[in-house]
Write a structure and sequence with these properties.
Layout (H helix, E strand, L loop, with lengths): L5 E4 L5 H12 L3 E6 L3 H13 L4 E5 L5 H15 L4 E4 L14 H29 L2 E6 L3 H4 L5 H21 L4 E8 L12 H10 L8 H12 L10 E4 L6
Parallel strand pairs: 1-2, 1-4, 2-3, 4-5, 5-6, 6-7
The structure holds nicotinamide-adenine-dinucleotide.
The site of nicotinamide-adenine-dinucleotide has 27 residues, from α1 and β2.
């Protein structure tokens, strides 16, 4: 990867987002990591990056606020002069069967997982088109491909990202900008913390590779899509799932 590239990573201080931030920073990219809460953890990430000689800045923002998304993008463009990569990683789940799911359970997930990506894309798209260069990666999920009991809102939001990715990829293909989705399987982060051990054991038993994924393994897929060598990959969904869905 060439020097002085700049990446925006939403939810970039924890879990998969943190792994993406550190992998990109290690490769010489300046990473602007958005975080919703826990400024102390965010500052620790900046310190960790600095102690390795890497460049990370952190920015408090809520992806479900269009104003925050514009502020985040503009702050970074002003400070760094450019944005080369957008990684839409922030996501939430509010799990209940449809019979128990409230209207707010539905909308809260859509606001973050779908609208949040759209708002961030809107915040950088003109900048990328002007520069005739950019890479956008949306973090979807295997659940968007398979569905899951108790996750109709989450599954719908993550399938929605496939439609967003493919439509935007077509709109921007002639402008030097690629748009792809990464669909992780079950990755060991806080998001799985509430899943009971016996359920996790059952999931692992179905994964051909025989274990949960590591956040770094998702980060590597993202970093590869950002490479100049990936210019011909657009509108794709890259599974990182240990063979769980094939
Ligand atoms: P996580 O809960 O550790 O991270 C989610 C991140 O999103 C956090 O940093 C959180 O602060 C941020 N976030 C949530 N709401 C936000 C908002 N309104 N504004 C800004 N940031 C917000 O979980 P994770 O596993 O690291 O998840 C990262 C992404 O990967 C999510 O989109 C998730 O859906 C997806 N994913 C995770 C798994 C898994 O098994 N862990 C599998 C497939 C997909």
């Amino acid at each position: 990867m060439s020097e002085a590239k700049v990446a925006l990573v939403t939810g970039g201080t924890r879990g998969i987002g943190r792994a993406i931030t550190l992998d990109l920073a290690e490769s010489g990219v300046h990473v602007a990591a958005g975080y919703l809460s826990n400024g102390d953890a965010a500052q620790k990430l900046v310190d960790e990056a600095r102690s390795n000689g890497w460049s990370v800045s952190v920015h408090q923002m809520d992806v479900s606020s269009p104003e925050d998304c514009v502020r985040f993008a503009n702050e970074v463009i002003e400070a760094q002069g450019q944005v080369d990569y957008l990684i839409n990683n922030a996501g939430i789940n509010v799990d209940r069967t449809v019979r128990r799911m409230t209207i707010d359970d539905w909308h809260s997930v859509m606001r973050v997982n779908v609208s949040g990506c759209f708002y961030m894309i809107k915040a950088v798209i003109e900048h990328m088109v002007e520069r005739k260069s950019g890479r956008i990666v949306n973090i979807s999920s295997i659940i968007g491909q398979t569905g899951n009991v108790g996750q109709a809102n989450y599954a719908t939001s993550k399938s929605g990202l496939f439609g967003l990715t493919m439509s935007l990829a077509q709109e921007l293909a002639g402008k030097g900008i690629t748009v792809n989705a990464v669909a992780p399987g079950f990755i060991s982060t806080d998001m799985l913390a509430s899943v009971p051990q016996n359920v996790l054991d059952g999931i692992v038993a179905r994964i051909p590779v025989g274990r949960l994924g590591h956040p770094d393994e998702v980060a590597y897929a993202v970093t590869n899509l950002l490479s100049d060598r990936a210019a011909y990959i657009t509108g794709a969904v890259i599974p990182v799932n240990g063979g769980l869905d094939m």
